[in-house]
Task: structure prediction
Amino acid sequence: MNNFTKQKTSRLGVMGGTFDPIHYGHLVAAEMARSEFKLSKVLFIPTGIPPHKDRLDISAGEFRLEMVERAIEDNPVFACSAMEIERQGPSYTVETLRLLSKIWPEHELYFITGTDALREIFSWREAEEILTMIQFIGAARPGFDAKDFLQYVRQEHPEIVDKIHYLEVPALAISSTDIRRRVKNKQPIRYLLPEAVRLYIEQKNLYR
Ligand code: ATP
Ligand code: MG
Result:
């Protein structure tokens, strides 16, 4: 069997994000995607310098990575990778995906996003290349309807319709932006994210 005919035997979920900080919106999306699409693992990959973010005050990679580690500690099928944080220069998903396919050639890759990020995928660097390599799972996110986007894909890009999957999840109107704002304003963030992450934010004095 050569490389081209080799069967992909299992599915790996990949969730990229700034994770500044990680919260239950991310974790619920990852867990529901894992179960619905029978993913053997979900790999969380915090971005290095995100090409799409114009925030200048983004927390150091080591803090964001540590928060992800703490958040997924109790789930044996969740893992995280520092590959983007350790890479020099901006993080482009296409490079990450190329590397992952090299490391795990037997895995089919499923990239998990919220519906806000899903709507943007055509603007990603080498979007067409990405769409030939992997499958996308767009988890419902309050305020970001995917209907128009999915209609657009059906009409304009019928060749990839079956690679883009919409996933209904219990909607959580939680965002990292809101959590950072709450910390700054001394409002509660408990129950929006794992307690271990909340304690770390307190300990490191993040988002003050
Ligand atoms: P920020 O407010 O800083 O943009 P965020 O909450 O959007 O943070 P990101 O790190 O930007 O979190 O998101 C990483 C991925 O997780 C994206 O694909 C995003 O769509 C998805 N995501 C984030 N929050 C939710 C949520 N509440 N429900 C579903 N998906 C989510
Ligand atoms: Mg975001």
In short: Residues 131 and 182 are 37 Å apart (CA to CA). The two ends are 56 Å apart (CA to CA). The first helix runs from residue 24 to 36. The chain has one domain: 7-174.
